[in-house]
Specification:
This protein is α+β, with helices and mostly antiparallel strands and 186 residues long. It folds into two domains: 3-109, N-terminal domain of the delta subunit of the F1F0-ATP synthase (Peroxidase, domain 1, Orthogonal Bundle); 114-185, Glutaredoxin (3-Layer(aba) Sandwich). The chain has helices at 3-25, 29-45, 47-54, 60-74, 78-89, 96-110, 126-140, 171-185; strands at residues 113-120, 143-150, 158-162, 165-168. Strands 2-1-3-4 form a four-stranded mixed sheet, sandwiched between helices. The two termini are 39 Å apart.
Length: 186
């Protein structure tokens, strides 16, 4: 990890931990979870908002007033709004995407959940997702929140990422494994 990325993650971690602690003290965990989702969606859906948080051309005052208006329009809680305003004041809005990701992880951990990224060759049915979640829960002893996507370039099978672990059951992976075995034989 580069030094800049490490510094950004450290900054984001401090703000996320503080906000998480405040939300926990004030019993606003469900509001915090909702705020994180709303804000992530707003950033993903708006090039202007992404520019506001990442571009150094905006002054502190411009960022603060814009963040306060955006927070009001999105219906963010006072604690989230104040944290974002403080981040704008300290010129730390550039870490907001990392900050939101860390908050998601802290919230999931507090609910004894883990996130699983699943990429499959075709869309999985509700039953398949439920069965996969049950299997992952048995292996990780936590509730599993699955984010499923489709990659049609996979011939078949799926790739499951949970934390730092990855399980690749794609046909391409099996073919590569078979090819390696054949090379070893001679």
């Amino acid at each position: 990890m580069s030094e800049q990325a490490s510094t950004s993650k450290g900054i984001a971690m401090r703000y996320a931990s503080a906000l998480f602690g405040l939300a926990d003290e004030q019993d606003e965990m469900s509001a915090l979870e909702k705020n994180v989702g709303v804000l992530k969606q707003a950033i993903d859906g708006s090039a202007d908002l992404s520019s506001l948080i990442s571009s150094p051309i905006y002054s502190r005052d411009q960022q603060q007033s814009a963040i306060n208006l955006i927070a009001k329009k999105l219906g963010l809680s006072a604690v989230m709004t104040n944290t974002l305003a403080l981040m704008a004041e300290k010129r730390r809005l550039f870490v907001v995407p990392i900050f939101l990701s860390i908050l998601e992880d802290l919230i999931a951990s507090s609910k004894n959940e883990i996130k699983a990224e699943v990429v499959s060759a075709k869309a999985l049915s509700k039953g398949q997702l439920d069965k996969l979640a049950k299997t992952l829960k048995a292996n990780f002893s936590k509730d599993v929140k699955i984010n499923a996507t489709v990659d049609q370039t996979l011939i078949g099978g799926m790739i499951v990422k949970v934390g730092s672990r990855m399980i690749d059951t794609t046909i391409q992976a099996k073919l590569n494994s078979l090819q390696n075995v054949m090379k070893e034989v001679g």
